[in-house]
Write a structure and sequence with these properties.
heterodimer; A: alpha/beta; 5-stranded mixed β-sheet; two-stranded antiparallel sheet; about 50% helix; globular; B: alpha+beta; Heat Shock Protein 90; 5 helices; about 35% helix
């Protein structure tokens, strides 16, 4: 690898990390169903969207791991999620457990009635609280 | 429920999956086409897909020892009011309804198990859920009262 190539590769990695940290993650022209916004004050809002089915869960797994490893006060915005089942729930629980192990906190916000019914049927809402309002959710995770 | 032999059944569809999960994503477009054909209400279709994901993932990802060949068949029969999904796999004998771990106690989150929630989820969404082992095959039958699901 020449120096130029190495610089290009480093720049691409930098761009990728920048994207992961600030907004929609793009791979080629495809939009991934996860968007990460740091609000300041240590609070991060992670907006999931679309179908978090088998394919969707595979797409969010890695970004969710990165979030779980680097953020402590996390709101999962589910208001744009059309579908969520066991694999997506698993990804959320794994991340929330990791955040909790660092004495962080993770809450969910705004699921549709169908998504909410799945979260409640699997009792996930008893460990990752669901808030109806984004402001409430942000307050719940904000460091005091 | 006698969906498999029910002469009133309006559909009879089968999807074959391979152990390992590489073709698992085919489940959703396949089911969505069926749901559209039957005109299933969105809420019922949503809930059936939740159960399908759980059951198919379990069978395909966890039902077989690594490298062991086998097959998983998903059959759907029924009408717009009542659907029966039968999942058959030639994997290890396993009754998910008896042998799955009991629903975990979830508080606090540090102790929460990952997984083990599927049977609880499936029981809450199916109107019938039965298992039998027959001729070296696991057979999980999931019945859905579509009319009741759409109203819930």
């Amino acid at each position: 690898m020449t120096l130029v190539h190495r610089c290009l590769a480093l720049r691409e990695i930098g761009v990728l990390y920048g994207m992961i940290d600030q907004c929609t993650v793009l791979v080629g022209k495809k939009t991934m169903p996860i968007e990460i916004n740091d609000l300041g004050g240590g609070v991060t809002v992670v907006r999931l969207s679309g179908r978090i089915d088998i394919a969707g869960a595979r797409e969010i797994d890695m970004p969710m791991n990165i979030i779980a490893g680097s953020k402590r006060n996390v709101v999962l915005d589910l208001s744009a999620v059309d579908f969520l089942a066991s694999l997506g729930i698993r990804s959320i629980v794994v991340a929330a457990k990791s955040i909790a192990s660092k004495r962080g906190i993770c809450v969910m916000f705004g699921p549709t009635p169908d998504v909410r019914s799945v979260l409640e049927a699997s009792a996930i809402d008893t460990v990752i609280p669901i808030h109806d309002g984004l402001d409430d959710a942000i307050r719940a995770v904000s460091p005091h | 429920m006698t969906g498999l032999t029910d002469p009133a059944s309006e559909i009879r569809e089968r999807l074959m999956l391979q152990p390992g999960g590489e073709d698992l994503e085919a489940v959703f477009p396949w089911f969505e086409a069926i749901a559209a054909r039957l005109g299933l209400p969105p809420r019922a279709a949503f809930r059936i897909q939740v159960v399908l994901e759980e059951a198919a993932t379990n069978a395909v990802m966890h039902g077989f020892d690594p490298g062991v060949a086998g097959e998983v068949a998903v059959d759907i029969t029924g009408t717009p009011k009542r659907l029966v999904v039968v999942l058959r796999d030639t994997g290890r004998a396993f009754n998910p309804l008896l042998e799955a771990p009991p629903p975990p106690v979830l508080k606090p989150i540090e102790d929460a198990m990952v997984g083990g929630l599927g049977v609880k989820l499936m029981r809450s969404l199916c109107s019938e859920l039965t298992y039998r082992r027959a001729g070296g095959t696991n057979e999980l039958t999931m019945g859905f009262d579509v009319t009741a699901m759409a109203a819930a």
